Amino acid sequence: MQLTVSSDIALRTLIYLGQRDAPVTISEVAEECGVSKSSLMKVVMTLVGANLVLSERGRNGGICLAQEAGNISIGSVIRLMENSLALVECMKDSPSGCPLLPSCRLKPILNSAQEAFFSTLDNHSLADLLKK
Amino acid sequence: MQLTVSSDIALRTLIYLGQRDAPVTISEVAEECGVSKSSLMKVVMTLVGANLVLSERGRNGGICLAQEAGNISIGSVIRLMENSLALVECMKDSPSGCPLLPSCRLKPILNSAQEAFFSTLDNHSLADLLKK
To answer: Chain A within 8 Å of B108 (Cβ-Cβ)?
Structure first.
């Protein structure tokens, strides 16, 4: 049971940006967060697309948070970054390969467990991660 | 966010065994659950080791549940089958690679979310999956 590398990088990036008062370069974030620049670029594009990060051009440009840290829930970040929330085969959009599916009662139970997971994360914002 | 294939196979196997009154062969389980015999063998060894499945030798031998379905919690099955419960790097036994770790407050929040996930599953037993 683990999250994708993209979720990990997104969380590191947001924590790092939340600790800075001015825009920082992609290179700085990559170095300070211990991730590759190419992986970081992809994640940042997703974060910019979701209006969690702002990308500013120019001499003093760089990336910074697009919202107050208190408005960014950890649950929303992980929902955004995970390619799939299908814990097992039958939770995929086009499930196949499990002959037990027609009579199986597993899916709603796993769904409720996953909902409990995200509900917990929805109660925490990026600001909670930045407290000293 | 997904569970390992081993968890998926273990759940299918236990559901199938819970629907049968007599021991069944590995070949039958593999075919009826749509999984490879070699993957199934590994999972069954783990389930036998955890006293969830009994393996009986002989002419009428095969595998069957070692306990009442009502005593097998879904949470315990998934905890057993997942190689690692480390959602991200810093939750590993020997974390490395995240320079933010010393001051990061993410780990306890992810731990509590994961606990909420398993608490939900602990409230459901294999018997809940077998109800018609």
So the answer is: no
pLDDT, position A105: 84
Look at A109 and B97 and tell me if their CB atoms are within 8 Å: no
Partner A contacted by B101 (CB < 8 A): no
Residue B74: closest CA among B2, B20, B7: B7
Domain locations in chain B as residue ranges: 5-130
The answer to whether the CB of A100 falls within 8 A of the CB of B15 is yes
Q: Which of residues 31-70 of A touch B (CB under 8 A)?
A: 32-34
Q: Kindly state the tokens that stand for A25.
A: 């370069």
Cβ–Cβ of A34/B117 closer than 8 Å? no
**At residue A37, does pLDDT exceed 90?**
yes
How does DSSP assign B39-107, residue by residue?
Answer: HHHHHHHHHHHTTSEEEE-STT-EEEESS-GGG-BHHHHHHHH-S---SSGGGSSS--S-TTGGG--HH
Class of domain B5-130: mainly alpha
Is the pLDDT at A10 greater than 80? The verdict is yes
**Which residue spans within chain A are E strands per DSSP?**
53-56, 62-65
